[in-house]
Write a structure and sequence with these properties.
The chain is an alpha/beta fold. The protein is built from six helices and five strands, in the order H-E-H-E-H-E-H-E-H-E-H. Strands 1-5-4-2-3 form a five-stranded parallel β-sheet. Strand 4, helix 5 and strand 5 form a beta-alpha-beta unit.
């Protein structure tokens, strides 16, 4: 596989962060970790859809051709790769956000967290 082939299916945290600042980033950002981890902190604007729940019926909520960017916990986790494979098998365009949450934090970006209860 050539480097150009890899980059067609991958994006980095900085590019994702910049795109998420726009009203329409051009993709749907999916956090494919479990709900408990998502609740502890996630990339702002991400939707939680664990990789095991990526099925045709759930994906019907988005028009065909919608690009998905997926991420998981980090380089030690293969959840994003599993999600990307599921999406590709469903005929959905997909990119992996390299490094997941670990790289997001390494770049100095903040996570969205639920408001604390008073």
């Amino acid at each position: 596989m050539q480097l150009a082939d890899i980059l067609r299916f991958e994006t980095d945290c900085r590019d994702t962060h910049e795109a998420m600042q726009a009203e329409d980033p051009g993709f749907v950002l999916l956090d494919v970790r479990g709900p408990a981890l998502f609740a502890r902190g996630h990339v702002p604007g991400a939707i939680n859809l664990p990789h095991g729940k990526i099925v045709a019926s759930k994906m019907a909520a988005w028009p065909d051709g919608t690009l998905f960017v997926v991420y998981c916990a980090g380089p030690h986790c293969n959840g994003a790769a599993r999600a990307a494979l599921r999406l590709a098998r469903l005929g959905r365009p997909v990119k992996l956000m390299a490094g997941g949450i670990t790289s997001w934090l390494d770049e100095g970006f903040v996570l969205a967290r639920p408001a604390s209860r008073a």
